[in-house]
Amino acid sequence: MLILGIESSCDETAAAVVQDGCEILSSVIASQIEMHRPWGGVVPEMASREHLEKIGPIVRESLTTANLTFDDIDAIAVTQGPGLIGSLLVGVCYAKSLAYGLGKPLIGVNHIEGHVYSVAFENPPVQYPALALIVSGGHTNIFHIPSEGQYKVVSRTRDDAAGEAFDKVAKMLGLGYPGGPIIEQMAKRGDPGKMKFSLAKISDGRPDLSFSGLKTAVAKYMRENNVAPQLTDDEPRQEIMDLAASFQATVVRSLVGTMEKIALELRPRTLIVAGGVACNLNLQDAANSAGERLGIPIYFPSKHLSTDNAAMIAAAGFAHLKNGERSGMGITADVTMRLQNFENEDAELRKRRVHYRL
Ligand code: KG4
Ligand code: ZN
Question: What rounded mean pLDDT belongs to the chain?
């Protein structure tokens, strides 16, 4: 089955052709990073206008690269949510028009489920039950996946996503946008034990995560020790590199420590670490060590598949399409789309005034 995947949830316009959910025939990504860089973050209105310009050419490029035409495609998979509303609408409307015009099946895909399927191409098949740590700029969750397509959130961030914390701390240190890759570079020459930042403790005992306190701790350290942000063209100062390394080490300890604790309890057969932050080699090293201690295989996507792409959307779409699922022409973008379909504790947590972000 040949699936055309389309992704436009944030600042990447992407299209891919994937065969049988595991073979990439093409994967094209137009990144808007340069356009948003002067603003220090994604400007939603600019992002949707740019998607509108790019989506047609990018989809056509994905077909020509794969040596195919629209007629060869069996179905279309598109990111339906979560994400920025304007950005999502461009992809969803384009995919709907295409599906209608060509008379082909359409499936709306949850972007986070896409990240789970980003490991489907370069690793052995996932064995269930699996445990997936999804760490991106907008989301940080650990999912228990007892069988394919079943998701329960077993840990979530109570405030910032891990990638968001990387981006904000990089901004405070004067390092630019996006923060994750720059902090990782800086951290290479820094001492991760120099500043002692403590891990967030959740008072109600849930295995949740929190990164906003860490961000404040970095700001407080800079204020109390008169650390000025890095100036753009200067040679990086040692204290900035030490701060980057100490911050990164704390985030990695928190993510991997939480995943390991949960894995010890649930004993999954596969561990998955995916999303933009999964590019981070320190995180990969620490997660690999945890996998070895646990005796559980651990899968990561390669760099191209870690950040937003359409191949992962096509792979997730394939899983639904092969079960006979289809989206009608009535689907629309869903900004708050959730990926949790059993033992959902949301209502109970809200009653107990547990605030968190999915
Ligand atoms: O998955 P993604 O491309 O977009 C979302 O769905 O959010 O993730 C983007 C996030 C950004 O916050 C970026 O700073 C972070 O992933 N990131 C990294 C690294 N590369 C990207 N974080 C830490 N280390 C990296 N090497
Ligand atoms: Zn993403």
Answer: 94
